[in-house]
Design a protein that fits this description.
This protein is of the alpha+beta class. The protein has helices at 2-8, 30-39, 69-78, 98-109, 129-143, 164-174, 183-192, 212-221, 224-231, 235-246, and strands at 9-13, 19-26, 44-51, 59-67, 110-114, 120-126, 158-163. A four-stranded antiparallel sheet has the order 1-2-4-3. The termini are far apart.
C-alpha cells in the first residue's frame, strides 16, 4: 500500500491542521482503493467521476481521499513528501516488507506483461535516483541479474526493465498468491509464468532439469534464498520453480 501511495498518491497540507491524502486511478482499479480504505483506521471516501481528456472523450476515474492530520503526518514521516515528489521519494525508513513495497511501486508506476516481440517482462519507471538504485539492488538479489540504470535523454527518467527469465522470476517473487495488488497485474504475472524460451533462442545459461527431491526441498524450505544455498541453484531459478509448482504449471513432486 505504501509503495503505491509513494508512486501514485498526493499528500497536501491543508488549513485547520488537516493533511489530505488523495489517490486517483482508472475506475477499473477501484477495488484496490477499497482495500486501502479497509486497511486504514481513519474515515475516508471514494468517489468516481467522468471527464474529457486529450486522450479520451470520456475518462472514468476513482479517487480515494483521506483527511487526517495524524494519518498525513505518519505517511510523511515514512517518506511520502508533501506536494510534488517524483524526484525525491526513497524507500521508507525502518523495517518494511521489501517484496510487498516493490509490488506497490510496480502496480502504480510499472508494467508486467509481454514485449512486442513476445518476451515476458517486468519494468518500473521512476524519476528518483534513490529509488532506482534501491530497485536495481533488490532485483539483483532476487534474480541475480544486474542492470546499469541511467536516466534517459528524453525526459530524465530511469527505466528498470527485466525481461525473459529474470522478468519471470521477479514477477513470480512479487505477485504471490493472495497478495494485495492490482488484479490485472497479478493476472499478467501469472500469464508470463507460462513462457518457455524457444529452443532456437540462444540462452545465457544451460537449463538444468529439476529433480523431484529438489522440488521437495524447495517446498519444504519455502524460501528461495535458503533453497538456493541448499541446492546450488540461483534464487531466480528457485523463485520461478516454486511459482510453477504452486500454480500448477508443473506437477508437484511425489511424497517420499
Amino acid at each position: 500500500m505504501f509503495g503505491f501511495l509513494q508512486a501514485d498518491g498526493h499528500l497536501s497540507q491543508q488549513s485547520r491542521r488537516r493533511g489530505r491524502l488523495t489517490v486517483e486511478v482508472n475506475a477499473r482499479d477501484i477495488d484496490l482503493l477499497r482495500e486501502f480504505q479497509k486497511l486504514t483506521p481513519y474515515n475516508s471516501t471514494i468517489t468516481e467521476r467522468r471527464r474529457s481528456t486529450n486522450f479520451a472523450e470520456s475518462h472514468h476515474t476513482a479517487t480515494w481521499r483521506l483527511c487526517s492530520l495524524e494519518a498525513g503526518t505518519k505517511v510523511n514521516e515514512l517518506g511520502l513528501p508533501y506536494g510534488r515528489k517524483s524526484k525525491t521519494i526513497a524507500p521508507p525508513h525502518g523495517e518494511f516488507s521489501r517484496r510487498d513495497y516493490l509490488r506497490g511501486l510496480i502496480d502504480a508506476d510499472g508494467s508486467v506483461g509481454y514485449t512486442s516481440k513476445g518476451f515476458p517482462f517486468v519494468s518500473l519507471t521512476t524519476a528518483s535516483t534513490a529509488m532506482a538504485h534501491w530497485v536495481r539492488q533488490y532485483a539483483k538479489d532476487v534474480t541475480g541479474t544486474e542492470r546499469n540504470l541511467k536516466r534517459n535523454a528524453r525526459d530524465s527518467i530511469y527505466n528498470a526493465l527485466y525481461a525473459k527469465e529474470p522478468g519471470q522470476g521477479l514477477a513470480a517473487h512479487l505477485y504471490y498468491p493472495g497478495c494485495l495488488s492490482l488484479e490485472r497485474k497479478r493476472a499478467a504475472a501469472q500469464s508470463i509464468a507460462t513462457w518457455v524460451r524457444p529452443s532456437g533462442m540462444r540462452s545465457a545459461y544451460t537449463a538444468c532439469r529439476w529433480e523431484e527431491w529438489e522440488d521437495r526441498i524447495l517446498l519444504e524450505l519455502n524460501s528461495p534464498s535458503a533453497a538456493s544455498e541448499k541446492l546450488g541453484r540461483t534464487a531466480q531459478s528457485c523463485n520461478l520453480r516454486s511459482w510453477r509448482l504452486r500454480t500448477g504449471q508443473d506437477p508437484m513432486p511425489n511424497p517420499e
